[in-house]
Fold:
Amino acid sequence: MEIKWYGQSCFALQTKKVKIIIDPYSDSIGLKLPLQLTANIVLVTHNHQDHNNVEAISGNNGEKPFRITGPGEYEVSGIYFHGIGSFHDKLEGKERGLNTIYTIDDGNIRLCHLGDLGTGLSDEQLEQIGEVDILFVPVGGTYTIDVAKAVAVIGQIDPKIVIPMHYQLPGLQVDLAEVGEFLEAEGISNKEACEVYRVAKSDLPAEERDVVIFKAQNK
Structure:
């Protein structure tokens, strides 16, 4: 599997069969997606402008990508998706509404994207999430869980690889914490950022958890 990050919570996942885009954003937030992004499947965790710009993503051969925009179980092109309901804030959605957590399973690697999670996880949510190889977790605070809560949620899920997201970037017109605060909390220094992360099941760490950070591939 090949993973790229475009800033905020937007990732591209390329499997042997399909390309998946998660949470494409509007350029009104100060970042710009690359032109002519294509995908077979688009996931949206919630209906805010920094996560729901599905019109920016084209399909193949003139067809629109298959869109998944909320809780439920889906199978598309041999990839299994489970959308799990959650809240965008501490007041059960009264401030910022609802959020969908997604698990993605290609039969080889199981991923979990937490979207703009605003709370800790319940036992029921953890049971639905299940075992996770790669976890995408927001760490910038303000609109999501902060660093301390992110560390706690990582402990709840216990993934093999953690990919922080939704933190401050040059040009981003949203007030978020820097990723350095999360890395410091995890006891990590001098972490090199990658442009593309390629991973197979055999690459997953057997014991110690790894953290992967990216250079955002936005314009």
Remarks:
- The chain has one domain: 2-211.
- DSSP finds three helices and 15 strands in the chain.
